[in-house]
Amino acid sequence: MSGGAEVLVELKQRAGCCIDEAKAKLHSLSKDIWSCPELAYEERKSHDRLVAFFRQEEGWKVDAHFKLDTAFRATWRAEGGRGGRGGGGSEPGDVVNVGFLCEYDALPGIGHACGHNLIAEVGAAAALGLKAVLENICSLPVRVQVTVLGTPAEEDGGGKIDLMNEGAFDNMDVVFMAHPLQDDAPYLPLVAEHDVTIKYHGKTSHASAYPWEGINALDAAVLCYNNLSVLRQQMKPDWRVHGIIKHGGEKPNIIPSYTELEYYLRTPSRAELSILKTKAELCFRSAAVATGCKVEVQFAKNSFDNIMRNTTLEDLYEKNGKALGMEFTTDEEVLTNASGSTDFGNVTFVVPGIHPYFYIGSKALNHTEEYTVASGDDRAQFYTLRTAKALVMTALDVLLRPELLQKVKQEFTEAKLKQDRKQSANSC
Q1: DSSP element (H, E) containing 95
Q2: 178 and 119 in contact (C-beta within 8 Å)?
Q3: Residues 6 or more apart from 194 whose CB is under 8 A from it?
């Protein structure tokens, strides 16, 4: 393919048209996932629906139950210099592998209140749009593989981390996904996070007749809670510790022999998270020492990292989004207020990528019943497909302008070194 800005603009427009042509089946896909909300690692119907979707599309090689029961992978490959009718082969060689991620787990009780049905639709739409353009280019400057990963359990567990540990991201060069919110934003600060469950074991006794025979596990839970409250004075302003007592006993006249707490620990970076975990664990264990209880401290299998930014990709996405009419937020409170966490953060430490946010036609807040309604509303479709177009346009930039892909990778390498140094300094 001969280069040139005009040709690239034309290809971007063609990709948008291809996505528009597929809008009915993409809407149906999203609606089916929305209508059958499933929790983390249990997204069987959503998994099957997405697998069937890609199997019905020509040229895709689909691996169901890819490394996890409810994960999948769909791949398509275009050969440089020969156009793109090659399908999903796996012959060796220098291939630029572009990934799009789909999420599709829901929240307990309120369904798709975080719009993961729309995330799945964006990933599918972007993949279809990119393939449709690449397969009609007579001569590509590089060999390209388009990979769609279905990543379960973002809300609880961290399916992307499981897949990462199994090598699912090892051969990717760049990865994209987008998350619905109340505004369009190329980047918002998400924090590192780790869940922890604390269990105290004491000894029952009659609380009035002979309390001295008991070991009060509720006292340990209360001390633990208060220890963490005292710790807040020595916490940095942007650290967060929040939790609940899940089990506090059976009856007032029985000294509790068992209590359980659950906490989330959050910091702006994964380097700081290890420091906070050490401080918090001292609070957990000292409560057991003071009361004579035994304690179990169970950190979740996966901790979520902060997102490692790639401003090259962010700037390209914002430029493409503006060309499509997106109005990106300039509200400093939105742009600087770190809040939630995502397992996509871990992915950004192994492959450069972006996780922009997109408006869906509603100012309802995520994780509310109102947002569940909004994520299933037909009005969300225009904004969802527009976001998919912006992702495809960004992918075309890095595929057809090799200097940009090199810049993306260089920024990733430098950012990774900086993060590693910070991690090493904090562990000393």
Answers
A1: strand 95-102
A2: yes
A3: 264, 265, 273, 277, 299, 300, 303, 304
Angstrom distance (rounded) from CA 205 to CA 219: 14
How is residue 157 written in tokens? 């567990």
SS3 state of residue 100 = strand
Q: For 275-340, give the DSSP string.
A: HHHHHHHHHHHHHHHHHT-EEEEEE-S-PBPPP---HHHHHHHHHHHHHTT--B---HHHHH----
pTM (predicted TM-score):
0.91
pLDDT digits (tens, 9 = 90+) for 391-404: 999 999 999 999 99
Residue 162 · residue 153 · CB < 8 Å: yes
Q: Are 241 and 231 in contact (CB under 8 A)?
A: yes
Output the CA angle 308-228-340, nearest 5 degrees.
Answer: 30
The residues pairing with 179 across neighbouring beta strands, listed in sequence order, are 357
Question: What distance in Å separates the CA atoms of residue 312 and residue 404, rounded to the nearest whole number?
Answer: 8
Summarised one tens digit per residue, pLDDT across range 199-241 is: 999 999 999 999 999 999 999 999 999 999 999 999 999 999 9
CA distance 263 to 285: 14
Q: Which SS3 state, helix, strand or coil, does residue 135 take?
A: coil
The angle, 0 to 180 degrees and rounded to 10, between the axes of the packed helices 23-35 and 369-376 is 150
- Could you tell me the two tokens for 215? 């070991």
Distance CA 349, CA 257 (A): 43
